[in-house]
Amino acid sequence: MILPALEAYDVSIPVVVVGAGAAGLCAALAAKEAGAEVLVLERDPVPRGSTALSAGLVPAAGTRWQRAAGIEDSPDRFAADIMAKAGGEPDPAEVETVTRAAGPALEWLADAHGLDFSVITDFRYPGHSANRMHGLPSRSGEELVDRLREAAERAGIDILCDAQAVALHAAPDGRVTGLTLRRPDGTEDMLGCGALVLACNGYGGNKDLVRQHVPALSDALYFGHPGNQGDAILWGAALSAATRHLSGHQGHGSVAHPAGILITWATITEGGVQVNLEGRRFSDEGHGYSEQAAKVLEQPEGIAWTVFDARIAGIARQFEDFRQAEAAGAILAADSIPALAAATRLPEAALRETLGQVEHLKATGGTDAFGRSFAGVPPISPPYRAVRVTGALFHTQGGLAVDSGARVTRSDGRAFPNLFAAGGAACGVSGPHASGYLSGNGLLTAVALGRLAGGGAAALATPP
């Protein structure tokens, strides 16, 4: 809802950030560093959001961690990978902006705020031509959002929780002058602002918007944060802001079912496969986990089994989510194909035939009927591992159009006077299809655009 600007507000803050995930907290840290007073609004009792549900990995090119590991990479190479994965459909200017901003943003978080990043070197996600995924020690989104929150608290940034922004107040020229906040008890406050950063993610939790823009996943498990109700997009539409690629989204074809735990795609990239309840493969799993969500959901009961081995489990174990899945008993072990078939209740003959075909392709460097090349892919061998999974919608990738400074723009390209967007609130760099999602694109725009938005908001809100 957009309401008229008020002559006076209960209290006014130079920079207000809506959302305390990675995007919002990076924006707040950047605004504070630039000298602005900042307030972060979070609708939940504690900051978690979609960041906490992710693997916490941020792709960045040309970082000092890559150089230390002997990895050759550059923002241009990263940008080319993004455009290739999404068929050239993302905005090239935004792709250039985020790929150039991501590395410096991670080094800033490390140097100024003590976040202990390192680069993953033992496996590579589909579509990335270099090892460029950076994460904290636990490789979990929970650790990432916790460390960002702690950094914000050390910086003296106020985070107001249980405070839901339900309306924006705007002048006729589009300048946002304030917000209406609602508390759990129904009371409301009027908060004025000099500049506003929308970092409240996309619309994945809004069934009506999902049905409208991503009908293929309208009945899928939603593995994102329920607070992602599309507020930024709805406010933007009411202000006549431009939106782009609203059908774009990140799915995931590997959520343990019924445990509801994300299973890293390293189980596939390192040589694993997915089979349906008939014991048969049904797609090129190596293309990407986002588009795999719909393919899994097309299978009987919307279920697949990811089959891998102990070697791959050792690689996957660096992720906190995988360790939790093991602790929950979701990862099954078997010393032979008959034992694997018994544990999974899959037809033994079909499973044996499927795995035999895969290992033959690996041995000969062949390509299967789905187009997956097995050249150079390591074999899987006993002891086997398997996990029952389903497909899920993680978050949406379309959103408000932004310029190179993360300012929200109108359809004619003109920027709003003081409105910014980052993370899932902004249009990402994945294009309009699930297949365009390159691993890490969500946290890429959260961290890169978040820092840009916070610095820009501070410049507009703080007197020279």
Characteristic key phrases:
9-stranded mixed beta sheet, 2 domains, single chain, 7-stranded mixed beta sheet, FAD/NAD(P)-binding domain, 34% helix, elongated, Flavocytochrome C3, Chain A, domain 1, 464 residues
Q: What is the count of distinct domains?
A: 2
What is the percentage of strand-forming residues?
15-25%
Number of alpha- plus pi-helical segments = 15
Mean pLDDT across the residues is 95
What is the helix content? 25-40%
- Largest sheet, strands/sense/barrel: 9 strands, mixed
Task: Tell me the CATH topology of the largest domain.
Answer: FAD/NAD(P)-binding domain
The coarse overall form would be: elongated
Radius of gyration over C-alpha positions, nearest whole angstrom: 22 Å
**Class by helix and strand content?**
alpha/beta
In total, the number of strands is 21
- In CATH, what is the class of the largest domain? Alpha Beta
Poorly predicted segments: none
- CATH homologous superfamily designation of the largest domain: FAD/NAD(P)-binding domain
Pfam family, one: FAD_binding_2
Organism: Roseomonas populi
Domain FAD-dependent oxidoreductase 2 FAD-binding: 15-434
InterPro entries: FAD-dep_OxRdtase_2_FAD-bd, FAD-oxidoreductase_2, FAD/NAD-bd_sf, Succ_DH/fumarate_Rdtase_cat_sf
